Amino acid sequence: MADLKFGEIKNQYKKLITVSQVMVGFDVESRDGKKIKKVLSIAADPKVVSVDALNGEAVVSGRVNYKILYLNEDGEPVSLDYFSDYKDKISDGAILPASSLTVKTSVADITVNDGGGLSISLVLENAVYMIASDVIPVLKSVPENYFDERRRVVVQSYAAVPPVSAAVSGESPAGGEVGEILMLDVSAVLSDTTVGNGVAAYGGAVYADVLYTTRDGLYLNKQFTIPFSEEQAVPQGLAVSAFAEASVKSSKVVLSGTAEDNIIGLEAVVEIAAAVVADTEEEVVSDVFSVTHELNTAVEKVVKPRFYHSAVYSETVGGSVSLAENMPAADEVLGYFGARNNIASLTAGSERVNVEGVLNLTVLYRGGDGGINSADVEIPYSVDVKDTDISENFRLEGRGAAGTVSVRRKKDREIDVSAELFFCIQAYGDETISVVLDVEETAEKKEAASAVSIYNAGGGETLWDIAKSLSCTPETILNQNEELVFPVKNPGRVVLYRELEEI
Fold first, then answer.
1. Is pLDDT at 319 greater than 50 in this prediction?
2. Cα angle 23-27-32, degrees, rounded to a multiple of 5
3. CATH number at residue 473
4. Is residue 402 part of a domain?
5. CA separation for the pair 77, 80 (Å, rounded)
């Protein structure tokens, strides 16, 4: 039996295990002791705090940050920040105590119930991902009298790196003396991630919207765009990549300046969570033949999932929104709150990505009666972005974020909205490789009776295909057919001359 040496390669990949839904709710109490007359706007941002892997179960602990703007019984706008914790237990047989899990959480539905008191309920969707490992048996080497075709196979591994934080700050004139900060809405977008020499460098920006009143009764919006950058050490290697997401860990408004002319300062801490992927090339035998013996070769095609590409795209989306007939007309647009970019679908094409989703926000305006009103806005979109690294066979994951937003009154019942939207995506795909599982020698090959063999090569055949068919070395084919170009472009003849022993 031939001296065959087998081994194995290990490939890691990100795998969606399951999607779970959990309901979170709470009763709202007014901040000033006065009754809540009307909710103007509400935004809910969930965040996963920890994920514990048990036998057949994942325990997800999280927190939801609610920002609520309402009118009290005197018609005064009041803001309220509220936190509620939640826990979700997700059962799945693939989960083990040693599993490396991540969870993406999003708001699937939000309901406000004001019958006999104000309560809010959310439906959260938790998508659980695991770093899975496949062990693939492969043939590593063959005896000297065998000829093998070798392939270099890329296998991937995921390295755990801790989250890093970046502090950002900025300030801008308030345009007068600030009466009250009604709302602060902050988001972070990571637009650039590069890896080299054992360092991952991140770059992005914080987008903030501050809604406030002045002492003389004006309602104003102040928008901030503050760039940030951060670095962290990652495993070194020639083919290491990373994809990351940024979230706002904490934020606050700081007032300074003179009493008549305040300065609004924004301070925020951004948390960056990255996944680091290392590519390693392994050489494996994908096919084998012998000049002297017939071989029974067991070859299997193995599908190997892998991460290919990450990118951040930006597009400006806008539209006009008409107020419903039962709503007061708009005399003055005061600002907006809670801009969220919710991606509904990501579709990969040839060198392009189609993104469909909805821009959601609340527009605040003053009606003809002088009262404060709000209108929930939904602007659906479908955009195509070019990306030469994208293939139509890729599976895409991602999340959306909103940047700078503009709202203005167009007519008394029509409002124009324009927003800079970001789409942060990761592209995954499947690579099929051929691996040799077993080789068995059967009969000894009979020596050819003819000194010349002619082989009609078809288009696309490789040097290996022809050598295997003629049962000779690839070098012999090349030496005797110098005009051939591989793979064969046009069908043609391959001539093989042999030296026959005299009997």
1. yes
2. 145
3. 3.10.350.10
4. no
5. 10
